[in-house]
Amino acid sequence: MGRVTAVAWPGQLPLAIELAREADRITEWPGLGRRAPEPLRLIVVRDGRVLDSLTSGGAPEWGAAVALPSTRTIVLRADLQDLTRTLRHELAHLALHQEIGVRVPLWFDEGYAAWGAGEWDRLGGLELNLAVVRGAIPSFTELNGALRGSASAADAAYALAVSAVTELARRNPTETLEPLLQRLESGTAFEAAVLATTGLTLDRFEESWQQSVRRRYSLGTWLIAGGGWLVVAAVVLGLLRFRRRADRARREALDEGWEVEPETKGGNELDPTP
User: Confidence band (pLDDT; 50, 70, 90) for 244?
Assistant: First the structure.
């Protein structure tokens, strides 16, 4: 299929061919411009169990796909939704590593791929993330761990990663990733490239990014995004519980001291007189 070799079991072969056509297109990538993919192999598997087997456990339990830049291979599950966007995310990994040979941190790799796939809806999830709203923004080291953690932790981590990558672009006078990626393409180490294109050491950039996230995602944005309804629901639930406890105590108080005389044997139920 052009530059893309599709590999799949018979049940997934039509889907694999369709996705291979999508992968073979010339694509505009952030900071890289229009790029045609170099030859790659696309393996479409039935489910997560097969994905885990083929990647020797390299994919997290919740993983939808894996990109292997060293062999220019993408392994993708067929049993999930939005496969085109998942494919584009993995293609972004390959496009990035096709152009740069230096090592980049995981948060940058995943943040770039999320940007390349247009996963901007991830940022909306941060508005309702209480940890973020409380200002508990992870360090880059912690962010790397969260990206390979549980599914719930990874959701926020991917959003934070893409926010960090967009902040790198914003910090450059061009407001693009192009200067940073050009330096990485030339072989400049990642930390040195960040310093040259933002004027900040990586540690200082991390602090600046954390501050920007705290400013953007505050208690106010949480309330506006829907967190206020959670507060209202919690208050209503609390009032209902209080009312039930009060009613129970009132009933118990009314029951105290009441005694019912036993019925007289043989008496007339409607006329108690002898």
Answer: low
